[in-house]
Every structure is written in C-alpha cells, then in structure tokens.
TrEMBL record:
Record key words, sorted: Glycosidase, Hydrolase
GO cellular component terms listed in the entry, alphabetical order: cytosol
Gene Ontology process terms (BP): carbohydrate catabolic process
The organism of origin for this protein: Pseudolactococcus reticulitermitis
InterPro entries tied to this protein: GH (IPR017853), Glyco_hydro_1 (IPR001360)
Keyword flag Transferase: no
Organismal lineage: Bacteria, Bacillati, Bacillota, Bacilli, Lactobacillales
Family indicated by similarity: Belongs to the glycosyl hydrolase 1 family.
Protein name, entry field: 6-phospho-beta-glucosidase
C-alpha cells in the first residue's frame, strides 16, 4: 500500500466561471468570457458559452453532498470578481449570500474550501480600461481581494490569488486564444508583471485582514526537457524554465525576481515598467504555500531561426517532437508522470522545501460517452491509471522529503472549458447536458473515494 502523509488533502479543483453558470444574473456583470461569447460565439466549441456551464449556481447544495460522496476532503474553486463586485466598487449582496452558503455547505460536508480569486475571468469594465496592461489593474485587484477576505474570511482559511497566470498571459497576449487576443511579447511581459504585483498586493492585504490564514498562488508547471545536451538546446531549456516557471515562482516563493530572467529580458529590451517600491513589496509578501498544476511536460529545442531581439516565445525556444512520447489519444497531450517527481524535487531543492500541493492533474477525454457501459456508468479506467501513475511519482518525491500536502484532481464534475466548451471531459461525475445537467458518478469517482479513505492505494 502506498500511504500518503497524515491529513493529506484529497480533493479536486474547479473554478467559478467554469461551473456556476447564472452568468449576468443576480447582479453579475460581464467578464471577458461573457463578452467574447456574445460577440464571437463561433469561436466556442459547439457554440457552448459561459451562461450555464455546469449549472452549479442552482445545484451547489446537491453538489456539496456529491463531493463528500466520493471522499473529497477539500475543493479549490474561485469567486467570480464580476459577481462579487459587478462594477468594481459596490459589493453584490446576492453574491455574498451565494458564496457564503456554498462554502458553508462544503464545510457541513467535511470539505475544506480553498478559495481562489482569479481564474482567467477579467471584468469587462476593467478590460475596457486596458486590463492587466495598466497599473490601475493592480489596485483594482487588491481592492477585490480585500473585499473577498472581508466577506468570507470567517469561513475560509486557505486562499489563492491566481490560477495559472502564465495562461492568461500566453493565451491572451501571445497566442491570440483568449480575449483580447493580442500577439505582442512586450505587452505580455507587462501584463505578467502587473499580474505579479496584483498578487503581491493581495498578499499584503491578506496579512492585515486574516493574519491567521494562509495564502498561496496556483501556477502551471510544464517542466521542460531539452532535445539534447548541446549548448544551444540547454540554453533554450533554461529560457523556457525562466520564462514559464521561475518568472512567478521565484518572486512569490523566494521574495525576489530571478536575476537571470531580468538579464534575459533586458538583453531583449523587454523589461516591464515597474515602481521603485515594488521590490520591497515582493520581498515582504511571499506566500505560505504553492499550488502546482501539472498536465504535461514541455519538450524544447533551440530555435532554428530566431529574431533578435526576440519578438515571440519561439525566439527563445521551440517545441520538440520527442519520438518516444506517450500521448493521451483523446486530448493530444503528452502523458509523462515522471515529471511530477521532478517538480517535487524542484520544490525541495530550489524553493526551500516550501509546502506545496498538486492543485490540478487530470486526463481530458473527448466524446467520453463512448465509455458508458450497460449500467450507464462511464468506465474511465484510463483516468484511474493516469492518476495512479502520477501519484506513484508524487509518492516517491514525498518519500524523498518533498513537502507536498495534497493532490487535487481536475476535476470534480465535468466543466465548461473556455473555447473548448464541453469537448474535453475531466470530471469524477459526468454532467449530462442533454438531460437537465444530471450528475452521475464515473468509475474513477468510486476509486477516488477509496483512495481518500485509505489515504493511499495498493501499489
Ligand atoms: C487548466 C485550467 C482549467 C482547465 C484545464 C483543462 O489549465 O486551469 O481551467 O481548463 O486546464 O483544460 P482543457 O479543458 O483545455 O483540456
């Protein structure tokens, strides 16, 4: 039996915009997602938008019981900024009532809420003023954070500021996938810097308002593996890790910007505008813990042709198609559980063994209904195998001293996923969109219950 440390968190991650639905109802204002869907519904898989998603707003009482039923002892979800503060200033009483009841119901069912503040859902009123490109966004976010701590701090002890800041930067400002779909490396760096400062200011507020609570951030880690040991490939790998991992992890965990990253940005004339007092604020507001989302590694090689100074990430490193890679055929992502061990060792060796947890890990499946058996249950053995493989490398990392306190799967119930709509299903519960959003447990949900009860699994 592979046993995990006492009080290990066995849970799942969610986000407000991907589950709640009830968009633009009960006072909620538009986020970039509500706006973009209205303007360009054709960009979204099968025209599935953010209005209903998993209909959790109406079903959260039932859902909290379902969390308990599969042994979840914790859930991370997010508050929607546009629900709590529709105009950025005045608190929406309906939102407070909804979230308070939701978090209370979780607790009644033995589920610890870990509450995140931002999961790609920029308010439209702020985006119209420039969003993360402007320094104003830092103050707006810190006001929102303070408001959330004041409204829910008596119910929630554990908080996170952002989910995967690199994703809103890359998808929104480098790849054109998310609104505002700009492709501009210099702007992307500035957006990243303001996001970092918004996080830092939120931590500063947190220490004043909830000194006994703990606060962290959720970062996506795709550790990079280089094509070869050549100087050029290793340089590409180093750049990928600096830009994608150390850019946030160093300041939030160690209280200082990574100097190699600063040198790289300077060399390419990409340094962001900063205020003189920022360094001090970064140093004084490190986190209590880190959440790391891991899905797949990043395979990199030196660019064949690179603009100088760099104009795009591809001028620093390029993807490399490793011939031996194992692919999830239903999502196209590489499956490489070994990386979780490398992540665990990175936290131990490079980040002072700061407490951390796996805040998302899971397997997305397109057309998952093909795996429904005669009893009506999805037989998702592929998901169980995926998680077991990752847990075994995580276990090894913990045995070797990495300070990991939990594992959260993505996700509890099938969720709406941005432009992908409901294409890729990840839940322990299936959500039947054709049948009044009915939830039904998948085989993996029953397996997870046992895992949580035993605090481990038969190896
Ligand atoms: C993570 C996000 C989640 C979720 C997940 C699955 O990066 O934090 O919000 O979307 O990825 O992604 P997808 O549905 O695109 O497979």
């Amino acid at each position: 039996m592979k046993k995990f440390p006492e009080d290990f968190l066995w849970g799942a991650a969610l986000s407000g915009p991907q589950t709640e639905g009830y968009a633009l109802k009960e006072g909620k204002s538009a986020s970039t997602w509500d706006y973009w869907f209205k303007e360009n519904p054709e960009k979204f898989n099968e025209g599935q938008g953010p209005e209903v998603t998993s209909n959790l707003y109406e079903r959260y009482s039932e859902d909290c019981k379902l969390m308990k039923a599969i042994g979840l002892n914790s859930i991370r979800t997010s508050i929607q900024w546009t629900r709590l503060l529709p105009d950025g200033k005045i608190v929406n009483a309906d939102a407070v009532a909804f979230y308070r009841d939701y978090f209370e119901k979780m607790k009644e069912n033995g589920v610890k809420p870990i509450i995140n503040l931002f999961h790609f859902d920029m308010p439209m009123w702020l985006m119209e003023k420039g969003g993360w490109e402007t320094r104003e966004s830092v103050d707006a976010f810190s006001f929102y954070a303070r408001t959330a701590f004041e409204c829910f701090g008596d119910l929630v002890e554990d908080w996170t500021t952002f989910n995967e800041p690199m994703v809103h930067i890359e998808c929104g400002y480098l790849q054109g996938f998310h609104y505002p779909a700009i492709v501009d490396l210099k702007k992307a760096v500035q957006v990243g810097y303001h996001t970092l400062m918004a996080h830092v200011k939120a931590v500063q507020e947190f220490r004043k308002i909830l000194p006994k609570g703990s606060i962290g951030i959720i970062l996506n880690v795709s550790p990079s593996y280089s094509r070869s040991e050549s100087v050029a490939d290793l340089k590409a790998k180093a750049a990928a890790d600096l830009l994608n991992i150390k850019s946030f992890l160093d300041p939030v965990a160690l209280g200082k910007m990574n100097q190699e990253l600063i040198a790289l940005l300077k060399e390419h004339d990409l340094l962001p505008d900063a205020l003189p007092e920022d360094q001090k604020a970064i140093a004084e507001n490190t986190v209590d813990f880190i959440g790391l989302n891991y899905y797949q590694p990043s395979r990199v090689q030196a660019p064949e042709m690179a603009a100088y100074p760099a104009k795009a990430l591809e001028d620093f490193y390029q993807p490399y198609d490793w011939a031996e890679k194992k692919i999830n055929p239903y999502r196209g992502w590489e499956i490489y559980p070994e990386a979780i061990y490398d992540v665990a060792m990175m936290m131990k060796n490079d980040y002072n063994n700061l407490p951390w947890y796996v805040s998302e890990n899971g397997m997305g499946i397109a057309d998952e209904e093909r795996f429904i058996d005669d009893s009506g249950m999805i037989q998702d053995d592929y998901r169980i195998d995926f998680m077991k493989d990752h847990l075994s490398y995580l276990h090894q990392g913990i045995e070797e001293g990495s300070n990991c306190f939990g594992y959260h799967a993505w996700t509890f119930i099938d969720c709406w996923s941005w432009l992908n709509g409901y294409r890729n299903r990840y839940g322990f519960y299936r959500v039947d969109l054709e049948n009044d959003y009915k939830r039904s447990v998948k085989k993996s949900g029953l397996w997870y219950k046992k895992l949580s009860e035993q605090n481990g699994y038969e190896a």
